[in-house]
Amino acid sequence: MRGSRSGRDLIAAGFIAACAMVSSFASGQTYPAKPVRLIVGQAPGGATDVVARAIAQKLSESMGQTFVVDNRTGAAGSIAAALVAKAAGDGYTGLVISSSYSINPSLYEHLPFDPLKDFAPVALIAEAPFVLVVHPSLPVRSVSDLIAFAKSKTGGLNFASGGTGSSGHLAGELFRHLTGAPLTHVPYKGAGPALVDVIAGQVDMTFASVLSSLPHVRTGKLKALGVTSARRSAALPDTPTIAEAGVKGYATATWYGLLLPAATPAAIIDKLNHEVRKALTAPDLRQRLTSDGAEAADTTPEQFRKYLSAEIVKWRSVVRKAHVHVE
Is the peptide bond before 265 cis (omega within 30 degrees of 0)? Predict the structure, then answer.
């Protein structure tokens, strides 16, 4: 009797597993059957919103259902993330994130979600480097010149950012950590005002977006020394990466990606990943991203998971060593 019961249990377990596989496969085949919401934790018109709307348009065209961008701002993007973390795992509520998502766990002690366990990574959408720019009056022509000049100058140099804990701030802290250059952080209420004061000569340098700084580099109001990404920027092909310029191990960029709730079936995740990657090969979308100083990515869900995990670990170390605190 015991053996018979054990056999029935095994058959039942196998039947349940088979049904789950069939259900998952079917859900992937029919998905999406209704409009999909892509939640963005930043305001309309910001870089994350722009990227989200660009990819949403392409997905709507290719998948035959409307992908709607829904901006839920507040708490450095945590309100949006918490909303998606609690959403049904059916593929109809997604979260478009930027690099700040990987920084927030180090800045805020209590987040209303687990940045890894509560989400299923779908795809990295794009990466956009910062560019290290200085006021033209600084007697430097390269990253190595800048490091040497900062070390030789009493009090070192100062660098502006869009605020304490911002991506630009931490790009500067990583630079300071790896080079030992004496740099003083000057936070602003936004990257725009920070760049204005560098152009005016009130601050020595900043790590700015390619999009906002490129016009000023071309007119000579700013001097570009290096881009922060692992590869050179197509928008600044003659500007070396900071790692190329001698700062071994330096690499950071603003990036954008897509997450779904953790319970989402693998078939839906894989289908959406396929569609995102296909969309990113479209010439018009690639050109749109390039014009904003970004480059289209191409990752599997697992590759994006590893990337996101590594980013969280990297910024935790930078935040701790830089003693960064937010109110």
Answer: no
- Is 203 within a domain? yes
Backbone angles phi, psi at 68, to 5 degrees: -105, 130
The residue type of 133 is V
- As a whole number, mean pLDDT of residues 252-266 equals 95
E strand or H helix at 134, and its extent? strand 119-134
Residue for token digits 């937010």?
A: 326
Per residue in 18-65, pLDDT (tens digit) is 454 444 454 567 899 999 999 999 888 777 888 999 999 999 999 999
Residue 327 counted as domain residue: no
Reduced to 3 states (helix: H, G, I; strand: E, B; else coil), residue 33 is coil
Burial class of 300 by CB neighbour count within 10 A (0 to 12, 13 to 18, 19+): middle
- Establish if 74 belongs to a structural domain: yes
Q: How far is CA 87 from the centre of its chain?
A: 22
**Which CATH number goes with the domain that contains 276?**
3.40.190.150
Residues 135 and 107 in one domain: no
> What is this structure's pTM?
0.77
Cβ proximity of 77 and 107 under 8 Å: no
Mode of pairing for the β-strands spanning 157-161 and 223-227: unpaired
Full domain range(s) for residue 98: 10-127+254-322
**pLDDT band with cut points at 50, 70 and 90 for residue 294:** confident
CATH code at position 182:
3.40.190.10
Residue 157 — very low, low, confident or very high, per pLDDT cuts 50/70/90?
very high
Same domain, 29 and 108: yes
Rounded Cα–Cα distance for residues 49 and 61 (Å): 18
Exposed/middle/buried for residue 152 (C-beta within 10 Å: 0-12, 13-18, 19+): exposed
DSSP 222-243: SEEEEESSSS--TTSTTSPBTT
Pairing of strands 253-261, 119-134: antiparallel
